[in-house]
Amino acid sequence: MVGNTYPYTQDTWASDISLASSKGLDAFALNFGSDSWQPDRIADAYAAAEASGTGFKLFVSMDMTVNDCSSASDADTLFNTFVAPYLSHPNQMQYQGKPIVSTFSGETCTFGQADTNSGWLYFTSKASMFFLPAFNNDPSIAASWSAVDGLFPWNSGWNYQPQNEAVIDTSVISVLGGKPYMAAVSPHFFTHYGADSFNKNWVFPSDVFWYPNRWALVVSERDLFDLVEITTWNDYGESSYVGPLNGAEPTGTTWTDGFDHTPLLDVASYYISAFKTGNTPDITQDAIYLWARPHLKDASAPDPIGQPSFADTTDDLIYALVFATSAASVQVCAGSNCQTFSATPGVNQFSISMNPGSGMSATMTRNGGTVVSVDGGSFTVEASPQLYNFNIAVLGLERDQLKLKRERERNLHLSLQVQVMR
């Protein structure tokens, strides 16, 4: 979301690209709006990608809910400012030999032409491109438009009311007539802006291990999906981010402070490898990923915006996703309320009830020794919240823990060296 990158420098982009690349991501889709400063941020992103030397790619995605599209000059401006400068850029992502250009929405844009298809034909005829929009109209109509090379159903990434992802996937693929399909995978969705702001207040349920299960579905049916997009890297206002909280959050965003999602990048890395290769990767490091909301779904808050829509469809559970190299015992705790599970080699899913007034933690043991331990620190399930917050806090075997692990291994190595020298 370029709209959340106002304070970014080329170095910030470089940091994001380095992190994303290390987890197996190949590209960023740069969703841009109408702010005058956004072209400069996109230029910085391309410059950072080229300087990285990783081959990391980028492509632009036009947010047509805010960009004008009623006249031919609107199409000219979008193309000349955001598309043309990067068509031959070494870090421009291509598909089927053409630069990808995408959208969010745009199904009613005409660019001054007779109809939507003619409008987008006017746009796409300006250069050779692979047009992969996220249109929100009937997919059988969108797929029939000659301007469209493939479709990206944005809402396939969530347990979207009233449909689920399998319905969206199959219904769109069935009408594409062989055109490529880009699937969405997203960890969460919660937004809470009042009528005096963006007027958005709802949660899409992401319980029952939605994120890893969505990934597992995409992997198991990988032959159906040509591309996969994680939505999103940094949409803080809709709680769908997997990247770090280092951008500019929309005014009134009260639900992200202390709610890190970056451990989910490690989860994604496992499934990305499986999707690309068709083989489930060996688990070479034990890990636990925990997440939960900060209050029960029925908690009452003196919040003028009110409880979000679909709150009653969520679960009051702490989720533990466990990657085990071999059989182990896993204890998951809501404060002092703990439950022990048996983990088998591979990916395991455990959950316990949230406990108001308590935090969350988990420990893996094997052969009498602690292998992995994660602790929520100051995170607490509030009994009486002041504001509604259906975002999730995510814990995992994070970089600090890995650093400590490597330091312990280094100290052990040095100790052994000293003993040998003696």
Automatic annotation (TrEMBL):
<protein>
    <submittedName>
        <fullName>Glycoside hydrolase family 71 protein</fullName>
    </submittedName>
</protein>
<dbReference type="GO" id="GO:0051118">
    <property type="term" value="F:glucan endo-1,3-alpha-glucosidase activity"/>
</dbReference>
<keyword id="KW-0378">Hydrolase</keyword>
<dbReference type="InterPro" id="IPR005197">
    <property type="entry name" value="Glyco_hydro_71"/>
</dbReference>
<dbReference type="Pfam" id="PF03659">
    <property type="entry name" value="Glyco_hydro_71"/>
</dbReference>
